[in-house]
Amino acid sequence: MILTISTTHQPATDLGFLLHKHPDRVQRFSESFGSATVFYPDADEDRCTVALMLDVDPIALARSRGRRSPDFTLAQYVNDRPYAATSLLAVALGRVFRTARTGRCDSRQALADSVIPLEITVPVLPCRGGPDFARRIFSPLGWEVDADPIALDPAFPDWGDSKYIRLQLKGHVRLADAVNQLYVLLPAFDSSKHYWQDSTEVDKLLSAGGDWLASHPARDTIVSRYLARTGGLTGIARARLAELDGAPDEPADDLPVAPRSVPLNMRRHEAVLAEIDRLRPDSVIDFGCGSGRLLSKILRTNVSRVAGCDVSTRELARAAEHLHVENMTERQSARLNLFQAALTYVDERFAGYDVAVLMEVIEHLDVPRLGALEHVVFGVARPGAVLVTTPNVEYNARYEDLVGARHPDHRFEWSRAEFSAWADRVAADNGYRVDYRGIGDTDPALGSPTQMAVFTRD
User: What digits encode the pLDDT tens for the residues 396-416?
Assistant: First the structure.
């Protein structure tokens, strides 16, 4: 099986830097089920193409299944895995391009952080649901999707199409995002995994897809298929993704839909909006606004001036799309300000707001950098009130099978005592007073899943 990634970004050979694979070399990597080869069929200034070719050894694959998944049929030796892109290719992709998936490129970091023109081709992809399903999955991620069904036998057109398609994606996407999307989505098309899955599989899913999967309109279907319909793991993954984004859940294909409680992220929105309503500000700024879902709700209130900033230009682009900025009237546009900025650096655009919101932001910073955020927000910008929410690590005991933090990018998660100690100190050092709120269902011993501090300036 083979997969290719091409770019026309100039110089196109910079693709080698982003993937950490030199265009002049052929590299081979051993897998438990065969070998993966990376090579560049095209590599010049105008266009560069990298190919990942996986040679599957059916004997090695059968032996690697282990005792947990015994299979004594001929199907373990005669199947479509040598040529169809399945979880085998996803595993090889994840390992071979491990560094590229992190978005790190010391020699071309600005390029690694940028969207570039990309073209991805998967010649044979098993796709239950056909071309329409492929478009349903990839189009919301910004790809132009070309999915052509593959006939069972061209010599006998009456036989119809097979379950396979030829997939081609074109778009302007950050390379790390594209590779992570393939890592998650290739197994979802086949709805099966070649290896035993446990709770660590949920962490892998959130690590690779947490930033875009949470708001994907077909996220439940993707989760269900990625986890090969293992009901317990699917429920855990869906619950954790619901915390990351307030998008309404959609029914996973051909799975029964159980009644669900209000997602925690929506409860956070409601709690923050309730405080804004109580404070009755004329201006609000959302620090770390992400895709703009909270901003859209603030814009429906009577707040006269609304701003949102984020360190990620990609997230700001999503926010602009979500808020329909292009279709705003002149009056609506004048009311909103979206800009890129980092909260650890003083920026004059942060100043002059009655209320600032830091919703699920501080835990994404390394603890040594919190001092810089405190200085920028509380010491220099000095809004009239600051609303800070963060996970309560004590409540994690309620999440069955949760290993580690709730999100792979969380640098820390505080107990209620640790959070209040930090907030009390920040308030005292900067002339604020602080009150505390719990968000979500409250456990008598563990508290609420989210804790909020409401700072008001003396």
Answer: 898 766 777 888 789 999 999
